[in-house]
Each structure stands twice: as C-alpha cells, then as structure tokens.
Amino acid sequence: MEKKEDRRIERTKDSLRKTFKELALERGYSRVRVKDIVEVANYNRTTFYVHFLGKEELAKELIEHEMKDFVHEFCKPLRDNPVLDLRQMSPSGTDVFHYIKENRSYYDLLVCDDPIPDINRALLRELQDIFQNRMSFVGDQASEINAQYFIHYRSYGIYGFILEWIRSGYDATPSEMARRIINLLYYHSPIMEQISENT
User: Fold this and answer.
1) CATH annotation of 1-52
2) What's the pTM?
3) pLDDT averaged over every residue in the chain
C-alpha cells in the first residue's frame, strides 16, 4: 500500500513540476502564481501545499531533480569505462545532448527572458563539480589541466555551448554537439579518468 501511495505522490509532484515548467516558459517565472499552477494542473491549493511550501520550493526541487539527471547522463561514458580515451570516443557514446533535447521543456527555461532564479547557475555549478570531483585528465600536464582555472575554463565553455545550442533552436544534432564537446575536452589531454563513482 505504501508503494502505491508513494507512486501517487510522485505522480502529483511530477504533474505540478510539469505544469510549472510550461507556465514559467510561457509567462516568465515572476508571473506564475501557485493559483495558476493548481488551476492548470487541475489540483487544489491544499494539495499543492501538502507537497511544497510555495513556488520557490517547487522551483528548487525542479532544478535539483533535473540536475541529478543531467549529471547522470553527462558522466555515463566514464561509468562504462573508468579510463576514457577521447581519441577513441564516438559522439554516439554520450547521451547527454539527446537528454537535453528530449527535456527541452526544462532547458528552454535557461534562455527565457524571465528565468527561474538560480537555474543557470545550477547548471554551471554541476559542470564545475563534475570536473572538480567526478572526472579528471591524465597525462604529463595533469596537475595543470586539472587546476581550478582550467576547471572553470572547461565548465564555462561547455555551459556556453549548451546555451548557444538552445538559443539556436537545437540546430545541430545531439551527435554533432557531442563531437564538439569531445574536441573541447580533448584539446589538452585525450585521457580522462573517473574520480568518483557517485554519478
């Protein structure tokens, strides 16, 4: 019985998150009210407040939920092979850009005029965390290319690639985007290794 209850709760929260994303993209974050969310999702305010303290908590949970999935997809190649040779990596070996395009209802929010607070910083923070704590480069210059300033360089570079791809209406295929990122990462060292399995 408890699992059935848990599934019902998760379905309700999924519906509220989905509706919130749609309204934030259509109207802008600041113009979305709890009243709007529950009316469109066909719930009442009491149901909303059982799950969330307010719009801000819903937004925070939405970002956390999406970033967890983003990190899972981004780090997938290293889970399959803890030491990765980028020279041998096929663009089809990463699914992160397929994931982004399939979840454009979230990622389009990164480039809207009135975005959810912290949505952009959250993506950048996750990219920085990946290169700080989850994967690193191997080679003669490893200490330099794994230094903080290079972590920022890579993180901002990939973040910029993603934003421009979204702004351009996903004009390149996910495989082409993967190829570009592989080239960006390969620039200083072709070998990457997994630091943490917490991906």
Assistant:
1) 1.10.10
2) 0.89
3) 90
